[in-house]
Amino acid sequence: MKRRSVEELREELKALMTEHIETLKKETFVRLTDEESYRHEELLQRIREVLADYLAALKDLARRSTSGTESKEKT
User: What is the pTM of this model?
Assistant: First the structure.
């Protein structure tokens, strides 16, 4: 399975967070139905998953960046 880029993950996270914010706005004025509440819980789970992948991708990117710098400094 191909790893997704930091940019792809950030874009998905942005879209998911926008949807989450819209749900919270709606919930402020109107009670969510059971189906909407279930959908929102699924959305929050997906946000957690994408965020974990995003952070791992950032960590990997930083590690590769640091490794490249160290290799150049040793040469």
Answer: 0.81
